[in-house]
Amino acid sequence: MAASDPTVKTTRAVDETGERSSRILQTRDLHKEFGGLTATDTVDFAVEEGELRCLIGPNGAGKSTFLNLITGQLEPTAGSIYYDGIDITPLPSHERVDRGISMKFQVPTLYEDLTARQNLRIPLQRIVDADEFETRTRELLAQFDLLAEIDETPAALSHGQQQRLEIAMAMALEPTLMLLDEPVAGLSVEETAEVAELLRTIQAEEGVAFIVIEHDIDFVETIADRVTVLDQGSIFTEGTIEKVKTDPAVRRIYLGEER
Q1: Dihedral sign, CA of 197, 202, 205, 208?
Q2: Any idea where the ABC transporter domain is (predicted)?
Q3: What gap in Å lies between CA 32 and CA 251, rounded to an integer?
């Protein structure tokens, strides 16, 4: 069968996301089941190079499962994931990181006994030589307005500072695609605005593409180039934030409005 021929799969990956395409990521018929439950239902999803895409939908729509399939934390039941000209479907998570995919999870995963400097050293060790570590650490902490907290442990940081440190750790891996799962959950209005500005600056200056899961529709409106709405594991609709916000069907499933 053609689908089992690695040459065919490689060619398809190149066609979908290689030099001949502006897409950095493409999923095809991506499907994930847990027992008899379908969490992701044959999803075709694409992200352009340098795009900031937001992924929204009600709880249980399959958003986090979808990101975990992209990072390799979960193995798909069926379907393919193409990234930067490669079929990454069979690759383990660490190889996807090496190819430029980084993720900040919804629940903070900082090392509580380590300082901000030491937390950053963990991802930086994959990227820079030992003699570059201090310089790059300070650059990242300054970029994320955390240089004054370089020797503080996470317990001494505010929730907003912890979120920024986690994004800095993801950025330390020098990704071309970053996945963020609810990066402003629990943040104040001011902190949310700071994260929005930070993501837009990274996108503009470094060309990083983002997929961002978020429930804060005002934040989504501030940052998104395009929005994808997931419902019951499938793509319900995609488009600009204006199109999505004014779609009555989206308002029913996402905002819980009555018919």
Answers
A1: negative
A2: 25-257
A3: 26
Q: How far apart are CA 17 and CA 176, in angstroms?
A: 13
180 pLDDT more than 90: yes
Spatial separation of the C-alpha atoms in residues 180 and 211, rounded to whole Å: 6
Backbone angles phi, psi at 79, to 5 degrees: 100, 180
Provide φ and ψ at 73, rounded to 5°.
-65, -30
Q: Report whether 225 contacts 194 (CB < 8 A).
A: no
Burial class (CB in 10 A: 0-12, 13-18, 19+), 4: exposed
Phi, then psi, of 210 in degrees rounded to 5: -130, 145
Residues 6+ apart with CB under 8 A from 34: none
* Long-range contacts of residues 238-244, Cβ cutoff 8 Å, at least 24 apart: 241/54, 244/56
Match 């994930």 to its residue by tokens: 32
For every residue of 221-257, DSSP letters joined together read: HHH-SEEEEEETTEEEEEE-HHHHHT-HHHHHHHH--
CA distance 70 to 66: 7
| Closest among 110, 169, 161, 164 to 137, alpha carbons compared | 169
CB-based contact 142:154 (threshold 8 Å): no
Kindly state the helix (H) or strand (E) to which residue 123 belongs, with its residue range: helix 116-124
Encode pLDDT of 197-238 as tens digits.
999 999 999 999 999 999 898 999 999 999 999 999 999 999
| 216, 189 Cβ separation under 8 angstroms | no
Full-model pTM: 0.89
* Extents of the domains making up the chain: 109-174
* Span 56-85, average pLDDT: 94
